[in-house]
Design brief:
The protein has 183 residues and is mainly α. It has helices at residues 6-14, 18-40, 43-60, 70-88, 109-126, 131-142, 147-154, 158-181.
Length: 183
């Protein structure tokens, strides 16, 4: 059976078809959760963010422009919501474990520990980036979005994205070097 396009599902959802909206959610839920988790680094906060993102999607579905991919629009909603959460909680620092899905499997326990420590340092450093640098880094380097997809999701032009990504990588490299020099 051919997969139904997002545009058709949106049209059906707008006409009251709850199953069509549910299918949209099921189709995109993992992506929204992963992006939320990468920003928030907490399972419960990410789950709450997913709920809010889909609530916002439902409320704003009439504003959807089918000239852009629904996933790109969802990235934008998700990133904006996560940045709002981070702005309101900037004073709090989180030191929770990185999701096991981010850690590669190594045969030796010390290699697993080293990798986890490096990922912890990377995420702690990423949390200290500016919101725009953090968003560019997460969408391009962690989520693997193309330049055009990330630009659209972040409402940036290509130059702004590349600049934010350059400074994010430079700042991360500097912060991790400093951290590694500490006794």
């Amino acid at each position: 059976m051919a997969e139904i396009s997002d545009s058709i599902l949106v049209e059906k959802a707008l006409s009251g078809d709850v199953l069509a909206f549910r299918y949209l959610v099921e189709r995109t839920q993992q992506m929204v959760y992963q992006v939320s988790f990468r920003f928030l680094r907490d399972q419960h906060d990410a789950e709450d963010a997913v709920q809010e993102v889909y609530s916002r999607l439902w409320k704003n579905l009439r504003k959807y422009d089918d000239r852009i991919k629904l996933t790109t629009w969802l990235y934008r909603i998700t990133v904006n919501h996560c940045l709002d959460i981070l702005k309101s909680a900037r004073a709090k620092t989180r030191t929770e474990d990185i999701s096991e899905s981010l850690a590669d499997h190594f045969p030796e326990p010390h290699q697993v520990l080293e990798r986890r420590e490096l990922l912890d340092q990377l995420h702690a450093a990423a949390a200290r980036l500016t919101p725009r640098q953090q968003a560019a880094f997460i969408l391009r380097d962690l989520e693997g979005l193309s330049v055009s997809e990330a630009c659209s999701a972040l409402d940036m032009n290509e130059g702004q994205l590349k600049s934010n990504l350059y400074y994010a990588r430079k700042n991360l490299q500097r912060m991790i070097k400093i951290e590694m020099l500490r006794p």
